[in-house]
Amino acid sequence: MLTDQQVRHFHTFGFLVLRQVLTPQEVERIDREFEIGLAEAESVPRAAGERKQLTWANLRPEMPFTTALFEDPRCAGVAERLYGADVVGCDSGASHFAGTQSAWHPDSQDRHLFGFKLAFYLQPLDADSGALRFLPGSHLSPYHETLFDLLWPNGDASGRDVRVPEYPGFACKSNPGDAVAFNFHVWHGSWGGSTDRRLVSFQFQKSPKTPEEQASIRNHVQTTERILEEFGRTEPPHHPDWVANAGASPLRAKWISRLRQWGYIRS
Questions:
Q1: How confident is the model at residue 44 (pLDDT cuts 50, 70, 90)?
Q2: pTM of the model
Q3: Non-local CB neighbours of 168 within 8 Å, separated by 6+ positions
Q4: How far from the centroid of its chain's Cα atoms is residue 182's Cα?
Q5: Is 153 helix (H, G, I), strand (E, B) or coil?
Q6: Cβ-contact 26, 65 below 8 angstroms
Q7: Are 101 and 75 in contact (CB under 8 A)?
Q8: Percent of the chain predicted with pLDDT > 90
Q9: d(Cα 267, Cα 202) in Å, to the nearest integer?
Q10: Which residues make Cβ contacts (< 8 Å) with residue 48, sequence separation at least 6?
Q11: For 67-92, what is the mean pLDDT?
Q12: Could you tell me if residue 144 is inside a domain?
């Protein structure tokens, strides 16, 4: 359970590092399941120059431990502490990075979409080997908006400034088993990553309370579909077995109901 101080830290700075959430044995299990997804992703033919990042869905039978971790109190409990009991687990994905850097960016520019990612990196990382770097407090207005002119000088992602170390960011040094929670709107990037950087993440969203927030959810569904297509992910984020909820998990049933209502699940 997060302390009040940790909750304040997250909402003030836009991120929070949680140490040793998983045991070494659990990290090994996740890594074995990661290998399954990686082998499948690498088997898909790709054009030259498309290999910086591979991504795939985790919520499927071949990845039982990773799937179960989504609803584990160490993940879902963190989400409820940060965004309330009606927060919804929306997606779980994995990414394999072959590039050595990631330019500064927020995960969402929609100021009416609220939520966060909980990220588990499967190797030790520091500032020079691909650890997540954040610009603390950059999820808040007006700081968030002013950074677009500085970091995206052409007005969109195509003009991103990739000189990550030149800006006063905080590098989240982490070891396998640690988790990094970060707000959708906080600016983040990385530097010096290896060609075998491994990430498993869980995405949680705040339930919408206003018409603007409801519209943002609908827009995010469309954006998510487009991004998955760009990454070549053809499988649905929510496997039919996960949606079937054979174990009758009350938490998953609540999430599925909301995900259907919002349009993430259409079956």
A1: confident
A2: 0.93
A3: 135
A4: 8
A5: coil
A6: yes
A7: no
A8: 77
A9: 22
A10: none
A11: 97
A12: yes
Domain that includes residue 92, residue range: 4-207
Least confident of 3-7, 33-37, 127-131: 127-131
Handedness of CA 103, 107, 109, 114 (dihedral sign): negative
What is the pLDDT at residue 20? Answer: 97
Shortest CA distance to 165 belongs to which of 136, 197, 133?
Answer: 133
Are the beta carbons of 198 and 121 closer than 8 angstroms?
yes
Domain-embedded: residue 83: yes
Asked if residue 33 is part of any domain, the answer here is yes
Q: Position 255: which residue type?
A: W
Structure tokens at 19: 């140490």
Q: Does residue 234 surpass a pLDDT of 70? A: no
b/e map 58-85, b = 16+ CB within 10 Å = bbbeebeebbebbbeeebbebbbbbbee
Rounded CA-CA distance 77/61 in Å is 23
Structurally, the chain folds into a number of domains equal to 1
Q: Would residue 117 count as lying in a domain? A: yes
Name the helix (H) or strand (E) containing 226. helix 211-230
CATH of the domain at 148: 2.60.120.620
**Over the Cα atoms of the chain, what is R_g?**
18
Please write the tens of the pLDDT for every residue from 50-77.
557 888 999 999 999 999 999 999 999 9
* One-letter-per-residue 3-state SS of 54-90: EEEECECCCCHHHHHHHHCHHHHHHHHHHHCCCCEEE
